[in-house]
TrEMBL record:
In the central section; belongs to the CRISPR-associated helicase Cas3 family. One of its GO terms (biological process) is defense response to virus. Pfam families: Cas3-like_C_2, DEAD. This is CRISPR-associated endonuclease/helicase Cas3. Residues 28-266 form the HD Cas3-type domain. It comes from Fontibacillus panacisegetis. Coiled coil: none annotated. Residues 344-541 form the Helicase ATP-binding domain. It comes from the Bacteria.
Amino acid sequence: MDHNSPFSIWLIEEAKGKLHAHTGDGDPDKIAETLEQHSDLVLHYAEMLLRDNGVDKAIYRSLHTMRIDGECLDVPTVELIHKYFIQAIYLHDLGKVNPAFQRKKMKNTFVANKGGGISDTTHSLLSSVLYLHIYLQELQQMEEETEIRPSDQLPGERMYPFLRHTLYAFAYVISRHHTYLGSMDEGELELKVFEQETRNKVRSIQLRSEIIYYYQNKTSFLQDTSLFDDIYLARNLRYNDMHSPYPFYILTKLLYSMMVASDFRATFHYKEQRFVEMNYFSEKLPLMPVLNAYQSGAIYQTILRYKNGETGLDLVPINMVRTELFLETEKRLHERPEETMYYLEGPTGSGKTNMSINLALQLLDKNKNLNKIVYVFPFNALIEQTKQTLDKLFNKEELEGYRVEVINSITPMVTEQEIRAQGSFNKGSSLEESEPAHDYSAVLLQRQLLQYPVTLTSHVNLFNYLFGTGRESNLAFAHLCNSVIILDEIQSYRNRLWKEIIHFLRSFADTMNIKFIIMSATLPRLDLLMEKTNEENEVETYPLVLNRDKYFSNPVFRERVHLHFEWLKSKEKTDISILGSRLMTIIDKRRLHGYGNRILVEFISKKSAREFYNKMKKEITDIPIFELTGDDSPYYRKVRIDQLGKDVNTGQFYLQEVIVVATQVIEAGVDIDMDIGMKDISLLDSEEQFLGRINRSCNRSHCHAYFFDMDKASGVYRNDWRTEHDLHHEDYQRMLVNKDFSQFYGLSMQRINESRQLKGKDHWYLFERKVQLVDYKQVQNHMELIPDRSVTLFLNYPLETDEGTMEGKDVWDAYVQLMQSKKAMDHAEWRIRLSVVRQQMSYYTFTYQLDHGQTAPAIYSEMKGSLYYVENGTEFMEYEPDTRAWKFNRSKYNETERGPLL
């Protein structure tokens, strides 16, 4: 079989079928996998991705949009680069011909003493050098024979250097397939790091030719010493903006992702002795049962009856508006299903989640080459809420086998066996009878490759997939092709990145066949930041809501909260005492009229929130007072949110009177419904997100919001153009009242564009230069969503749950033990056990911001990686009997850390 493999043409006759790619790792029953078998299997899985997930079309789209000095690539050049791409994947392990690798790593007795003096067992760099040798040699021959004549559009003096540059970039990717992507042109010296590495490898081969003894073309390799000089000469052209930036960046990222993903699948196949299938919407998992299940639901059926003009529906006003908005977005989508980027703008409470589910399913139905949905959120609370909504759809018998998976840092991986076991348990079977052995490796692989019809994840995870440099973060990249990606609350992205984000999203959408639905109640028109629009000079992103004022100005949304700006008339900052007095006055007046007193007070600093909370706890004893900040554990936050909810049977609030003191964590993603809001002013879109927590159900009158000025917003929202003006300006007050944020965002867009034209590190050319040079590390750093100087504290304290008390120390010890057993345990099982422990750890971990110049917190007992364990954690916690939970006292930790002299 090996002799018939196309791969064997690169091996000398005696080595065919004799060199190994993997061994049984001590399993005497498992036959070693030959280099040909592994390479053919890698190619098989690569071809599966190319064919079934649309990567092949993405490669061609990137090449067809590529420009060299403004000119298109001709067809022969496109086909040649496509071949280079596929062969880079196929030959990525060719360096395993290294006798030292075979003898020491594979324990292959066939090599005997060949290359006995060679100590270097690595293969990745050798693979890239041999790949370069094969195709530089072929290219040189083409050039000499003029087999491919340069076209009029792309002269030979540009085409051939670009082809060498492409080979060089693909070789760099091969050299990194076991590590991470850095920078292809890293280094300050005349010869760059990768150039030096390849040159050193070539010289070492010339000195010790046994390294490539089993390589078929070793004679020509040793004779042609000048072949590699061509790629170094092509560097001068690389630095001259030879090609357009985004298509080439995406092309090389696709190559890396395809290479590592196909390698992972092939390795799994060998170890588990079974094929790895794709788990998306397909013939195996058809879309129609899901679409039918959704459209047979009560909400969709009511909307359909309304659309068909049925009478007697008796819709309340808010549901009437929601229905009309739903129908408009669906109609607009049907008019332009070929678009790649859509805006979904709707007021808070207008049903955007339900609309987005419908739109995503409609896109999958209209575009048969789409095969998955990826929901992306800024907060875990939003992920969990949407998961609950989707579970109501997918937890039906006819949809068994369809998975809706949450991928974030605190959700443990769940196996199919666990799902089936729980299903059997729910149906009355014993759990013991229905619990098979866990297939840890399959679960991990599914998660790493986003192998689900519907995935819910975070903004941070998505950016890791798009811009990450590590192997694991890139596994998912190629699998994003043919997706519908729903981006929720995009305004929460760093304002300084909006221009970069829209350029990249547009490029990913156009190249990878991704349909982006960007949705929010406060939606910035990021297409205004595009360097150019299309030929008709129209906007780049298609709005699904044409007449937004029809909905935003509707009384059920616009007038559900009465806004008050009178506290902003004073030039003096509001202090804690004045705010407390105002709060108590509001409570007394509302009690006189019999109105509810569910009150939300939001601050933009934790310090002010804590001071106000402590003051109100002393002065108000007849109303429950809660505090919700980023310092709360998920358990504490869930308990509090549940207490703020309604009885599902009566529809009545559990607490008619309650005061919630909070920070920005409640602005989006927290499903609470309050009567009164009081907010420290910050960004205009944050004010609107805050209003979404007041009279959320739109069914009560006498709901009000009051704005005050206490802390400086620019100190919290650093380097954000949205802080330039605030609610002190009457124009901004009118924007908030009228729900019209176009002028507010328009000014931000203007400032962003202006800043990117100024000389200095923020100049737009310098960013596109990083992309053009495929400087993966610099692009990753630039696109980082949350750049901060924070560490994670693990505080040991007792956590009481419905299942009993869980000690932090026990969870920490389990984590430490798991970390120590990493090498001894199967990696897949270790990763899944770690995901379970991490969920427990999230109850005890808190983000802590370091001071300038500080490299670690002062108070901790033990450190593991980036985690700092605090043994006496209870000392910095406050117990609350009504929740049986502890709150982190950040100020006490700060005071203890910094000492009395500070």
